[in-house]
Structure formats: C-alpha cells, structure tokens
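Researcher: Before we compare anything, I want clean individual predictions. No alignment, no superposition, just each chain on its own. First chain goes here; please echo the sequence and then give the structure tokens.
Model: Echoing the first chain and its structure:
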Amino acid sequence: MSHAPPLGALLRQYAAGSALTCEPVDQGLLNRGYRLCTTRGRYFLKHHFDPETADPAAIARQHRATQRLADLGVPVAPPLTGTDGRTVAVIGGHAYALHPWIDGRHRHGGQLTTEQCTRLGALLGVVHASLERVMPPEGRTVANPADGSGAANAESTEDAEAANAEPPESAAPADAESPEGADPARGADPSDTFALIDRLLAQVRRHRPTDAFDELARHRLLERRALLERHADRRPPQGGSVGWVHGDFHPFNLLYRDGEPAAIVDWDRLGVQPRAEEAVRAAVIFFVRPVGTLDLTKVRAYARAYRRTAGATPSELTAAVHRVWWERLNDFWILRWHYERGDTRADPQFPAASALAVWWTREYESVCEAFVG
C-alpha cells in the first residue's frame, strides 16, 4: 500500500486494538483517508496531508467544533480521543485523526428528491446557525450554549485568532484553490484573469500531443475571455455578513443513510466566511447537471429551506449569487491543476464546470430568482 500510515503506533495511541484490514478511501483531492477494521471496531483514519490544513492546532479546533455540534444534535462524526487526551496524533511529522466509521453513501443532487433538497438546505442552515452558537465571533466571546448563562467560552480567544488566520474559502468544488488575483473582499480582478487566460492558452498550445481535453480547454478559455470582456464592469462590491462555515460543503462531504443525512465530514476548511456564499456554492455543486446547467427547481426548494433555518434574507442570497457567479466566471483551477501541476484528477469535472459559467451568465436572472423566490 502506498503512503501506508503507521498503524501500530496510531492504534496504540488510540487504544483501538490491532489492525485487521486497512483500505484507502479514494475520495478527496488533497488529504488521505483509510477504512480501518481492528479487533475493536471499524474506523475512518484520516491523514491530514495537505500542508494548508495540516496544522495540529487547526485540526484540534475543527475537532472541538464537531464535538460541540454533535452535542447540539447536528449529524457529524467527532474524532476519538487518544490515551494522551488529544484528538490529533502527530507521528513522524504527520498529523492523523481517528473517527468512527459511518455507514452511508454520497448523493449528488440528481439522486435527491425535491423533499430531500429541502432537507439539505435546512441542514446547511442548521449548521450555520449552530456554529454561531458554539464558535466565537471574530475577536469576541460567545455564550456557553450548554447553560445559556452568557459566560465566555474558555476557548473563544484561541478559536477567534485561528479564524483570522484561515485562508479564503475555496471557490472550487473540492479542495481547490481560489481564483488567481481574488481579493477576499471583492473577488477576482478581471485584468488578472485576462493574464491568466493568456498564460493558459499558451500552455494549451504547447501541449503535445493535442487531445480532446486541450481542444475543450482552448474553446472554453476563448469563450470565457469574451464573456469577461462583456461583463468586466460587474465585479462585485465588498462581501456581506460573515460567520463560521463548514467551508467545503459538497456531496463527497455528506454521507446519507436510509435517505437521510448521517454525517457531515471533512471540516478542514472550517473558518469565518460569508455564510450565504457557502450556501450558493454548495447548491451549485450539488445541483449542477452533467451538461453544465442547474436544476433550478431543486435549487429553489433547497434555498427556501436554507433561508428559513439560517435566517438569511433574500438580499443576502442575491448578493451571494452575484459573487459566486463572478468567482466561477474567473475560475480556472481545474486547468491550472492540469497544465501547471500535471495533476489530472479533477479533469472529469471540467466539462460541466466550464459550461456552467457560460449557462449561468445567460440565465443570470433565473438563477437569482431560484435562490430568492
């Protein structure tokens, strides 16, 4: 097995018995996961491999958050605590965490009924509202939700400082990077995007032998440049209200069992960001069709439930739709991975993702109405 984790040391640290089987879980673009069966049970072993999210202190903060959410009844899978009282095991300079194994399956929006889409929107709204209860606002303290007394959370300062250190939330479907030139307050500068398009076009031209991916990439880059030339004056203003968000809420980070959400996983991107934008990003990922359109009927059911449970206003969602549309219009993370990193794992997402930006621009008003109607 490549990148085999140090099972003996890990299982001793968690007093989790002896390993019987350990199988890689082939999902996630940056971190590594394993389905682990031992003499004491079944577990999910996570190797926090991505340097941007592998800081043990940040991981421990995520673990505290999920435990607090679990106490409120949110479907999560908090990690086990080791014999040293810690939830993060650092061995050989690498950070690991052991979670209970959750039986379930991932579902994309095409596999959800309209009622399930309503419950999905409500779930994300509950996550945002619950994070407001259990995590501190930036630079301030929060009441202890367990007793309602208004006493300061002992970890408020630590968590707030960590929030300020978080990188901007990814605009990409999974573990990707933000658009080049993106200003966290305003979004991408079109002049930076034009320069990126030119650079990528040059890389496409140099690639040999030319293949179908190159042809599609060239077509989409030229198409996107023309769109940006027409819409460059629509760069969004500063973002709206912020709060604690999951940061990467998409189908591969939500497990279903018997048609109901069983666990929200992968809290690596937990941070303080515009909440409504996470709601829009999540909908775009869940409800994009293979041809690059959105199922607006399902988006509408999802968004109504989200607004109700999160207390978000239609104006917040309208602004968030505009900002996420602008992100997608300026976003080329899949092409950057393909041509600059030589990493092709995200290539299957490119046809739908690249078509979506074009369709969304054409159907801008209809998309906005689906989120606020």
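Researcher: Okay. Second chain, same rules.
Model: Second chain and its structure:
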Amino acid sequence: MTTRARSFDAAAASYAAHRPSYPPALFDAVETLIGRPLAGARVADVGAGTGIATTLLRERGAEVVAVEPGDGMAAEFRRTHPDIPIVRGDGDRLPLATDSVDLITYAQAWHWTDPVRSVPEARRVLRPGGALAVWWNDSDPTVPWIAEQEERLRVFFEVEGETHRTLPEGLGEFTTRSVTWTRRITLDDHLANLASHSAFLVLGEARTRAYFAGERELLDGLFPDGVVEEQYVVSLNVATV
C-alpha cells in the first residue's frame, strides 16, 4: 500500500495536469450534509496531493490547510498554490491541534489510511459538532464505453474489484450523496489521466507502454475526432461527530 501511495510523487506534475477536478454540485452537497456554509469554516484537506480539492474548498471561502505526506506531491502543491498553507503528514498522524477544525476532507485519499489510527485522529482534531467528508470520484460504469474500459482494466490487473472503500466505524453514521458530472478532454489527456493512477505507476514501463498502445487503438475507433467525454460519479460520505 505504501509503495502505491508514494508512487504519485514521481508523477506529480502529470497528476496535476490530467486528473479530473470536482463539480460545484459536490461542494453544495458537502454544505448541505455538514449543515453550514464552507465559507469561514476551518477545513483540513488530508491527502491533498497537488491541491485539486484544496483550491476548490478555498474558492468556496473555507479557511483551508492542506495535509500531504508525499515529497513530490507537496512540492507540486507549493509550486502551483504558494498562497495556501500546507503541512507534511498523513491521516494516521495529523500534524494539527486538538479541536482545531470544523471539517476534515479526504478527496480520493481515505483508502490510504489505517482506520485504527485515522479515526481517532479525526475525532481528536475535529471540534465538537465537526464533520468528516470522504469522497471518491469514479468513472461512471453505466456509460457503455467506460464499462468496457473498466472490464479491460480488471482483466489486465487481475483484480476482482475494489476492497478499500469501506467507511470507518466510530465516527457516527454516514450520510451519502452521489453527484454525476462530465468533462470533455482530448484522447491524449484521457490516457494521461489513466496513466497517472497508482496501478500503472508501479507497473513498469514496458507493460504500461504495451497496455496503452492497445487502449489507444481501441479508443481511436470510438473517438475519431480525438475528443473524449468522460462521465464520473462522485460518492460523497459525511459523518458528524
């Protein structure tokens, strides 16, 4: 797990350039579920990476601090967002004071934690009445070409499905929302986004190159104009403590 989690450091610039952002509706849903505006809220964005979610929280008026363990990701964050505070650490050892934040967010990052440690840390750092928001942004398998691509990936990596999306116990009952959204990007950017995932980052150059040669050939036929419409579903989960 650690090897995959830290694999992003060597690809931080590509991650920042190609990973999808999040729609405004996601943050509307966060505000609804936490029962307050993000504006003025003290927020810790844990596993912030290159700052994709952090910047959007800041734009909503949150007083946000990023928490990131990776050298490469933190360096890219500082390069592109020099005005947003970032501290080094992870969810298992939050470098934050007790009762110091109103909201902790994990955008695509909760599965890298050990809940035995990260749950008590979240409870320690959150103020009374504070909330934990955990979300994942996944390709929408109801779209036929996406479902076919997901099946090719499953077969290629010989996996049975995700096993790390279990929500933690000990933080109260989670309320969930799903937000569907799309973006149009070039085929090159679509493949670069796919290549920035940890499974490929640890795979090795030869096998990665072979996979993407075949994937490009298939997608060239589906998208002859070189433009791909990706559809995503953000699964948002919020618990108040």
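Researcher: What stands out in the second chain?
Model: The domain at 2-240 is CATH 3.40.50.150 (Rossmann fold). Additionally, The chain has one domain: 2-240.
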